[in-house]
Design goal:
It is built from 11 helices and 2 strands. The protein is an all-alpha fold. It has a domain of 210 residues: Alternative oxidase (Ferritin). Strands 1-2 form a two-stranded antiparallel sheet. The N terminus is likely disordered. The protein binds fe (ii) ion (2 copies). One fe (ii) ion (FE2) binds next to helix 4 and helix 5.
Length: 355
């Protein structure tokens, strides 16, 4: 149990996760303690279920809705710019972790870059050796001898989703400017890329309703975005193909992450999220149009994982195409077949299959 006199200071990453972990284990439904993780996350309750205080060691008085809907005299509601296309339960359950074997040096470099990023992510979130999966199959194996805690998962979700929303915006923006500058058609790539970044932002906003980042986490996110945006901006100008491959590998990690969460939820290792009183945030219910009776954390993760599987298939496929001439197959109507479904094609479509 955490001593009640913890000063509001910054701890090391591992200490933060340990603190959050012990808070979750030792202070079941207890209020009156303010715990800040090193990663800067204050683990607040889901705004939709603050009354139940399922995931919080923060006093109720300190919990707040980070981005409440603005109440105006005339506007009733503001719908998302890109309504979600929706999935059937069968489609969501059919998603599996996958890995595209690197073909050539640039693929290998993109893959290694993602692996190095994940290595540092594990360190930053205090993931011990026993919490890691089989290193020979890091994006497909989901069994580890020790599960992650809800707190560790939320730190990863918030950080990864804040980063994942950047590439689509950079790619879409640069292709948009390229089309204006060269007075040429884009052939349908821009909207898919912008929609991807929008979708990632909805993932982030959903998780932000479950925990509140402190100043340390916010500072890290600002710094990370500054570096990541500029690096991607330059990289996309130099080689959009490599960037799409890199994003494909990043999304392999995302599908792996959410598959592992599902595995641990099914195994009963994340009791806060399987508690019948836990409800997902309203923003998620509205965006994915989650039906009544299917609004558990597991349902939410199934939707998000299917989104990540789409990004994975789309980006691996775009990485196989002629960046200047080929149309985007995922918004095209075909002469002799159905429009391809990226979520179920973990390694992406080869060019000959879709062009
Ligand atoms: Fe995401
Ligand atoms: Fe994604």
């Amino acid at each position: 149990m955490i001593p009640s006199g913890i000063p509001p200071r910054v701890y090391t990453a591992r200490q933060a996760v340990q603190l959050a972990k012990s808070a979750l284990v030792g202070t079941r439904f207890q209020t009156g303690l303010a715990v800040r993780s090193v990663a800067g996350l204050r683990f607040g309750a889901c705004s939709a279920c603050q009354a139940q205080r399922l995931f919080s060691t923060t006093p109720a008085a300190q919990l707040r809705d980070i981005f409440p809907a603005k109440d105006t005299p005339h506007i009733k509601t503001t719908k998302p710019a890109w309504p979600h296309q929706g999935y059937t339960m069968d489609e969501m359950l059919a998603v599996t972790p996958a890995h595209r074997k690197p073909q050539g040096f640039t693929d290998w470099a993109a893959w290694k870059f993602v692996r190095i990023a994940r290595f540092w992510m594990d360190i930053a979130t205090g993931v011990g050796r026993e919490q890691q999966v089989d290193k020979r199959n890091p994006t497909t194996a989901v069994v580890a001898s020790k599960p992650l805690t809800e707190a560790q998962w939320l730190v990863r979700f918030v950080f990864l989703e804040s980063i994942a929303g950047v590439p689509g915006m950079v790619g879409g923006m640069l292709r948009h400017l390229n089309s204006l500058r060269r007075m040429k058609r884009d052939n349908g790539w821009i909207e898919t890329l912008l929609e991807e970044s929008f979708n990632e932002r909805m993932h982030l906003l959903t998780f932000m309703k479950m925990c509140e980042p402190g100043w340390f986490m916010k500072t890290v996110l600002i710094g990370a975005q500054g570096v990541f945006f500029n690096a991607l901006f330059v990289a996309y100008l130099l080689s959009p193909r490599i960037v799409h491959r890199f994003v494909g590998y990043l999304e392999e990690e995302a599908v792996h992450t959410y598959t592992r969460v599902l595995h641990e939820i099914d195994g009963g290792h994340l009791p806060r999220w399987t508690d019948p009183k836990f409800t997902v945030p309203d923003i998620a219910v509205q965006y994915w149009d989650m039906p009544e009776g299917h609004r558990t954390m597991k349902d939410l993760i199934l939707y998000i994982r299917a989104d990540e599987a789409c990004h994975r298939g789309v980006n691996h496929t775009l990485g196989n195409l002629d960046q200047k001439e080929d149309p985007n197959p995922f918004v095209s109507e075909f002469k002799d077949r159905e429009t391809p479904k990226p979520a179920l094609k973990g390694t992406g479509y080869e060019r000959a299959e879709v062009i």
